[in-house]
Amino acid sequence: MQIQENISLKPYNTFHINATARYFTKFSSLQELGEVFDFDSLQNEVPVLVLGGGSNILLTHDYRGLVAINEMHGIEVLSQDSKHVYVRAAAGENWHKFVLFCIENYFAGVENLSLIPGSVGASPMQNIGAYGVEIKDVFYELEAYNIKENKLRTFSAKDCRFGYRESIFKRKYKGKFVITSVTFKLKKHPVFNTSYGAIQQELDKMGVKDLSIAAISKAVINIRESKLPDPNITGNAGSFFKNPTIPKDQFERLQAEFPGIIGFSAKHDTVKVAAGWLIEQCGWKGYRKGDVGCHEKQALVLVNYGNANGIDIYDLSTQIMHSVENKFGIMLEREVNVI
User: Fold this and answer.
1) What's CA 269's distance to the chain center, in Å?
2) DSSP letter at 108?
3) Cα separation of 102 and 315, whole Å?
4) What does the alpha-carbon distance between residue 20 and residue 61 come to, in Å, rounded to a whole number?
5) Which one-letter DSSP state was computed for residue 127?
6) Which sequence positions are flagged as catalytic?
């Protein structure tokens, strides 16, 4: 393991924030991962930040500890039966490349999650989801490195305590484990999910006659590319805020005042409200000040048009949260991890 000092993190986060890491390294094996935390102990317990694709973080300052980039790679089929195939992917694998691997091999279940930026290791941590599918729907188990005990632990779906863009690794075990691999339970015989968003409309536009996971993946890619900025070109972390869940009676009161409000029935007599609609109604969609803004096609996406810093973006998110609360009485929650 090689340690570098005072390295820019701009290439390692999709917001393209030019923060600096006091120490910097990469690891590609369990042995090297152990060495990362040996360095931690040797340097009087400097903080360690492990990054995968850097697609769901906002760096608001230089990092005074060690930033370690997860470059653990590999995809393998572990086992299969008449209905399912179990595929394990190393945490450092690019998520979209993993999805394409599954599609090429006719493994169904993740096609609706095409083109989501980030790594495989981040997918269960965030319980990523899109177009009617979440990681918990295809998850089997994961392995994670226990930092304190210097050993691997296996987590089942129940152990992970998945919620809406949530898992135990974002709360109770934050900073205590490093996910090293994820095993997915995928279908040999697909159950197509085309009811969410504009997937069916896009499939019709594509002229698809024989539905397939490849066609759904392409439709999702087309939709995402049409309305979301490419993080390789414009700095962003995808959806910055979660869709808030509120009591049904509160939603009905808001609906009486704002007939156009968008909401979907959720568990326990609640309604999940479209955060993008709330933000747009407050006038933020397309807003720009200097190099910071709210994307012109999707109000949920905050963007760095050039040389914005993390504080600029964080301050804009705070202004948006306050305006939504003042107008609708709903407090938005950031989905992005602020560091």
Assistant:
1) 27
2) B
3) 40
4) 8
5) T
6) 165, 239, 335
Q: How do 245-247 and 133-134 pair as beta strands?
A: unpaired
Q: Which helix (H) or strand (E) holds 79?
A: strand 75-80
Q: How far apart are CA 168 and CA 272, in angstroms?
A: 22
In sequence order, which residues have a C-beta less than 8 Å from that of residue 252 and are 6 or more positions away?
none
Using left for φ > 0, alpha for ψ between -120 and 50, and beta otherwise, residue 270 falls in: beta
Contact 298, 279 (CB under 8 A): no
Q: Which residues neighbour 190 within 8 Å (Cβ) at sequence distance 6 or greater?
A: 108, 109, 111, 212, 213
CA distance 303 to 296: 10
Sheet with 151-156: strands ordered across: 75-80, 84-90, 177-187, 139-146, 151-156
pLDDT in tens, 75-99: 999 999 999 999 999 999 999 999 9
Q: Can you tell me the distance from the alpha carbon of 268 to that of 195, in angstroms, rounded to the nearest whole number?
A: 23
CA geometry: angle at 145 spanning 144 and 149, to 5°?
A: 135
pLDDT tens per residue, range 256-268: 999 999 998 888 8
Q: Tokens in use for 322?
A: 């306050």
Which pLDDT score is estimated for 39?
67
Q: Give me the residue label for tokens 């918990």.
A: 136
Crossing angle of helices 213-227 and 199-206, rounded to 10°: 110
pLDDT mean across residues, the chain = 93
- The angle that helices 213-227 and 95-104 make with each other, rounded to 10 degrees, is 150
Site of tokens 């903080």: 47
Q: Amino acid identity of 10? A: K
pLDDT tens readout for residues 180-229: 999 999 999 999 989 876 899 999 999 998 999 999 999 999 999 998 99
Question: Integer distance in angstroms from the first to the last C-alpha of the chain?
Answer: 25
Q: Is 126 helix (H, G, I), strand (E, B) or coil?
A: helix
pTM: 0.88
What is the dihedral angle through the alpha carbons of 95, 11, 69, 167, rounded to the nearest 10 degrees? -50
